[in-house]
Amino acid sequence: MIESTDRTPLPRDFFDRPVLEVAPDLLGRTLVRLTDDGPIELRLTEVEAYAGEADPGSHAYRGRTARNAVMFGPPGHAYVYFTYGMWHCLNLVCGPEGFASGVLLRAGEVRVGQDLARKRRLSARYDKELAKGPARLATALDVDRTLDGTDACAGPDSPLSVLTGTPTPPDQVLTGPRTGVGGDGATHPWRFWIDGDPTVSPYRAHTPRRRRA
Q1: Quick check: helix, strand or coil at residue 20?
Q2: Cα 82 from chain centroid (whole Å)
Q3: Strand intervals (E) in the chain
Q4: Chain Cα centroid distance, residue 88
Q5: Is the pLDDT of residue 88 over 90?
């Protein structure tokens, strides 16, 4: 049985804080995606923090571009990027405005709209795998670049919003290096996840890619 969760939307002030405060505080919250076919709701179980121009692992490390412009604020908006030529990933921008920090949504438990998520994640053997990893999460929720810049604090009619849900107690939150991040940002312990949750994705260290001749 799924426990009752708080349906109050998170205000913009929630996101207008340092990224290392926002990231672990997102665990247990409810992400709502309104699709043309109906709503999908997901309990967030794993996230990663990225601290903009101060963070070698961030897309904004070398400054503002057309691709990463949404990361510079205002807080509470979605930053969606396309990676490896095939996958989308969903982030939530946090404040203060102008500092390009954001939280990558890495994994979650789909609690409403499982049938809709299954149609997009045909390779998932079990429901716990529907959003087990950032690309799988975005696929299950039908997230692509058209949602880049969406205001997640705009109200119940927004395609994306975040509800209070059931915040995870601090003693149930684990932290470690971010998945797949190399270089100077490889050891930052800025990945946060709920201890023992089956929807959390496995950690993978960065593997350098060889350039084609």
Answers
A1: helix
A2: 14
A3: 6-9, 30-35, 38-50, 78-83, 87-94, 101-112, 160-165, 173-176, 191-194
A4: 11
A5: yes
